[in-house]
Every structure is written in structure tokens, then in C-alpha cells.
């Protein structure tokens, strides 16, 4: 779980005492989902992990959003990562960008990410302004692209910005 959090940034690791405190105080809590596939009784046996294709497996998947002790929303994949962007819990991840001819042909490793939320009232309605700052580097390229040109880097930065914004808007 901790390595998934560090590498992909989709799911934040939360201790049980933190969850109890968050739910007990009435504030919201975000919990990572755990899905068991197969028979849980067979999964408890040592023979299950000794097989090439185990009868039972556990998958870390999704993010549950609780408010006042009740499940309010379930987020998967990009939407889950969008929530971690907003909550400033994302420190490291990989953002995939499209090339002209190949979908997700460029991988950008985000090494540092920081978010800030400001609340303003306009026309008696709350308006949230969320700002992000991130740093990263291009780790993989699977299409012909000239990375020595400044304009190419600017295009990739703009594309990464749009991708991050889309994830945040899904959340």
C-alpha cells in the first residue's frame, strides 16, 4: 500500500486511528478501497499464495469519501488521484500524455506536487480556487518528438496541465 502511494499517488495510506478521529469529529474522511476477488476463506490459506494463479486476490482500488460517517462518493482511477491532488497528499506520480499518433506515448514523472485551496464568496455562493505547482521530468517517450526544442517542452507542459486539471475536475 505504501509503495503504491509513493509511486502512483492515487491512494493515500491512512492509519485506523486517523480514520476514527476524522469520522468521530464529524469531518470528512477519505479511505482507500480494498477489493477481494474470489473466496475469502480460501484466501486465508497459505496454499493460496503458493499458486501461480491464486484462488483469491486483494486489489487496492478506489477512494471512498465519507462525510458525517456516511459514504458520500466513490472515486476510481483518475478521479481518485484528482482527490489526492486537491488534498495535497500527492507527492509523486506519473502523468501520461498523448503524442500526435500514439495515445499515452509520453510519461512524465511528477517528483513534487503542492496544492493550495482558497475560498471566496461571490454572489453569496462559495467559490473555491485551487492552485497547483508541480515539478517533473520526461521519463519515457514512445513517439518521434524533438525534446531539444523549447516549444515542444512548452506544449508538453500545457498538455500536462490540462491532464492534471481534468483529473481534479473528475474528483
Automatic annotation (TrEMBL):
Residues 62-170 form the Spore germination GerAC-like C-terminal domain. Pfam families: Spore_GerAC. PANTHER family: SPORE GERMINATION PROTEIN B3 (PTHR35789:SF1). This is Ger(X)C family spore germination C-terminal domain-containing protein. It comes from Neobacillus pocheonensis.
Amino acid at each position: 500500500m505504501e509503495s503504491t502511494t509513493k509511486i502512483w499517488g492515487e491512494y493515500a495510506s491512512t492509519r485506523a486511528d486517523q480514520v476514527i478521529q476524522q469520522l468521530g469529529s464529524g469531518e470528512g474522511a477519505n479511505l482507500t478501497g480494498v477489493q477481494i476477488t474470489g473466496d475469502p476463506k480460501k484466501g486465508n490459506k497459505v496454499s493460496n499464495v503458493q499458486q501461480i494463479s491464486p484462488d483469491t486476490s486483494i486489489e487496492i482500488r478506489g477512494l471512498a469519501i465519507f462525510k458525517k460517517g456516511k459514504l458520500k462518493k466513490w472515486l476510481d482511477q483518475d478521479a481518485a488521484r484528482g482527490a489526492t491532488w486537491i488534498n495535497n497528499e500527492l507527492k509523486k506520480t506519473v502523468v501520461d500524455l498523448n503524442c500526435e499518433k500514439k495515445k499515452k506515448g509520453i510519461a512524465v514523472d511528477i517528483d513534487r506536487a503542492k496544492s493550495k485551496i482558497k475560498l471566496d464568496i461571490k454572489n453569496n455562493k462559495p467559490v473555491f480556487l485551487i492552485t497547483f505547482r508541480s515539478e517533473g521530468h520526461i521519463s519515457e517517450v514512445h513517439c518521434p518528438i524533438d525534446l531539444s526544442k523549447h516549444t515542444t517542452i512548452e506544449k508538453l507542459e500545457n498538455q500536462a496541465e490540462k491532464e492534471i486539471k481534468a483529473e481534479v475536475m473528475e474528483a
